[in-house]
Write a structure and sequence with these properties.
The chain is 11% helix and 35% strand. The chain has 232 residues and is mainly beta. Strand 9 and strand 10 form a beta hairpin. The relative contact order is 0.20.
């Protein structure tokens, strides 16, 4: 029987580079001061994202799982780690962020899973040229009524997969091309049709997929051993 693709969200990635290195790549100011070395970033974790505010582009740390500013509480954040490209402009949870608060989520790789018999086998998706993947993200600020603190959160936009990733999963994170970073980040951009056009799957991405140890399945595990390439 052939291996089965898993359906659902895209929910784990790596940020191996330091934020100072990411700041150089993205032409940004490093406000996060994070050493990197993260191999199993999971929903509700804090992670580095690239944002544009006025004239300054910055690397900051936001929590993964978007909480809209109008929410009464943060309990739904874990259900909003992804935003579907097809409905991002109409969904009440995401449409305001899509129009005004877009970000990039720089990752060195992301994980997808495939059911192989009784085993849920993880695979790593990574660029072949060694560059980070700039995932399309949205962010929001939510004031916690318990203490008045504004907490900033983000989500990753997903689309139908390209041909390579479709062998694993029915969705994939949207990768924003290098020459579109400025357009995606620009908070003054109002041509939402043009922005929607950046959300299509790209078969030209220089990607490769390889199996990794099932240690990834445990969100408590971290370290370079999680991305070890297993024999094909």
């Amino acid at each position: 029987m052939p291996a089965a693709r898993l359906r659902g969200v895209c929910g784990r990635f790596t940020q191996e580079r330091s934020t100072s290195e990411l700041a150089e790549i993205f032409g940004a100011t490093d406000l996060a001061d994070d050493p990197g070395g993260r191999y199993n970033v999971a929903p509700t974790d804090e992670a580095a994202v690239v944002v544009q505010r006025d004239e300054r582009r910055a690397i900051v740390r936001y929590r993964w799982g978007l909480v809209p500013h109008w929410s009464d509480d943060a309990r739904g954040a874990a259900r909003r780690i992804n935003a579907r490209a097809e409905t991002v402009g109409s969904s009440p949870a995401f449409r305001e962020s899509f129009a005004q608060r877009r970000c990039l989520v720089p990752v060195d790789s992301f994980y997808e899973w495939r059911r192989e018999g009784a085993v849920r086998q993880p695979y790593r998706v990574v660029r072949t040229d060694g560059r980070p993947l700039a995932l399309a993200g949205l962010w929001s600020g939510w004031r916690d009524p318990a203490d008045g603190v504004v907490r900033r959160t983000f989500t990753i936009v997903t689309s139908a997969p390209n041909l390579l990733v479709s062998t694993l999963h029915d969705r994939m994170p949207v990768v924003v091309p290098d020459d579109a970073w400025e357009r995606w980040l620009d908070p003054s951009a109002r041509d939402l049709g043009e922005l929607h056009g950046l959300l299509a799957p790209d078969d030209g991405l220089p990607l490769e997929i390889h199996a990794v140890p099932r240690l990834v399945n445990d969100v408590r595990r971290d370290g370079p051993e999680l991305i070890e390439r297993l024999p094909a």
